[in-house]
Amino acid sequence: xxxxxxxxxxxxxxxxxxxxxxxxxxxxxxxxxxxxxxxxxxxxxxxxxxxxxxxxxxxxxxxxxxxxxxxxxxxxxxxxxxxxxxxxxxxxxxxxxxxxxxxxxxxxxxxxxxxxxxxxxxxxxxxxxxxxxxxxxxxxxxxxxxxxxxxxxxxxxxxxxxxxxxxxxxxxxxxxxxxxxxxxxxxxxxxxxxxxxxxxxxxxxxxxxxxxxxxxxxxxxxxxxxxxxxxxxxxxxxxxxxxxxxxxxxxxxxxxxxxxxxxxxxxxxxxxxxxxxxxxxxxxxxxxxxxxxxxxxxxxxxxxxxxxxxxxxxxxxxxxxxxxxxxxxxxxxxxxxxxxxxxxxxxxxxxxxxxxxxxxxxxxxxxxxxxxxxxxxxxxxxxxxxxxxxxxxxxxxxxxxxxxxxxxxxxxxxxxxxxxxxxxxxxxxxxxxxxxxxxxxxxxxxxxxx
Length: 450
Hints:
By secondary structure, this protein is of the alpha/beta class. The chain folds into three domains: about 5-95, NAD(P)-binding Rossmann-like Domain (Rossmann fold, 3-Layer(aba) Sandwich), CATH 3.40.50; about 100-300, Mur-like, catalytic domain (UDP-N-acetylmuramoyl-L-alanine:D-glutamate ligase); about 310-445, Mur ligase, C-terminal domain (Protein-Tyrosine Phosphatase, Chain A, Alpha-Beta Complex). About 35% of the residues lie in helices and about 25% in strands. It has helices at about 15-25, 45-50, 60-65, 80-90, 95-105, 115-130, 145-150, 165, 195-200, 270-285, 290-300, 330-340, 360-370, 380-385, 400-410, 430-445, and strands at about 5-10, 30-35, 55, 70, 90-95, 110, 135-140, 155-160, 175-180, 210-215, 230-235, 245-250, 250-255, 260-265, 310-315, 320, 345-350, 370-375, 390-395, 415. Helix 6 crosses helix 10 (about 270-285), helix 6 (about 115-130) packs across helix 11 (about 290-300) and helix 12 runs parallel beside helix 13 (about 360-370). It is globular, with a radius of gyration of 23 Å. The relative contact order is 0.09. The model has no long low-confidence stretch (mean pLDDT about 95).
């Protein structure tokens, strides 16, 4: 037997555990696991299932520089000095997506973007299933990519991929890939916005069919080459054989070239940003040779995902919306753009800024927001960019923010919790933040019935 490959896996979350499972059961590796946390979430599982694997709490430079390969989980910054030292000594630095791409026996459909990627991923999966295809969905949503390999081979793997997952990818070789949009995010992780953009762009490495958002200032300027085709979509009138919107007598229609496919109002999710999400999913479905009737049926039925412009309740003609997944400025702008045409929004926002620039919020808030209630670590920083016409409030908890919103909201208003920030100053994750908002709305708003 050949000498085992000395492999160090950094991170013992879901992704790290999937790497251990895959390598321990399929290949000749001598595995060590590291985690910066004293009590990694899957430590007990590791010790039960793979007691022979050494687990180190902390980053051990000596172990790393003696490794043949280092597999880093998405949450670990590859710029860490110990990882850089291992790379300089010849270690191969990779992530789970590199391992997955090398072993996948079905076409990979890959989706990334600053905002909308989970929605488009699930839209596309719904279309494929409506067309009778078997698909496995994972990556940055739900199941780690490597865990999908334990299932029977599907017709397609549909992966949502984050910039963190793409950082270490050299050749993804996806059958089809899309970058939905680019807005500054995770600036606490990247040296500059260009590094973030280049991480996203790696999704196109080795791609057969590339899908481009023609309206995005960054993505539309990339010179993408693909073995098969480069298609695009737009919020305006499409070019021949491209996807877009045709407007006629005040109505909007999703179209392929000059051919109308369906009315925007037929979508279950009619907001403007979700029309763009639907166009991206349809463009991907078309290069997968999925039929139009499956696209239409699936999109008419697709109700969206929790914590993404989710209507919690409409009470006394006031809509309460949970958009906790809006962890950056671009997502908050998209929510405000799609949710109303009036200046009737009470915005709840704040959290961890991640070194973002909040100034792009100014214009849309001047048009749509009547009051803002800020919370969290960088809430006050966000408040400083608000126009004078937006009334400002501050809250120390989600329940207090909801109480304040309830006190000032009037019939016809929309209360939108779209934080434009990460959640980890006050909550475990964006789901917990969204759940806190829903619980607060149920406690504060609904008891006033009857």
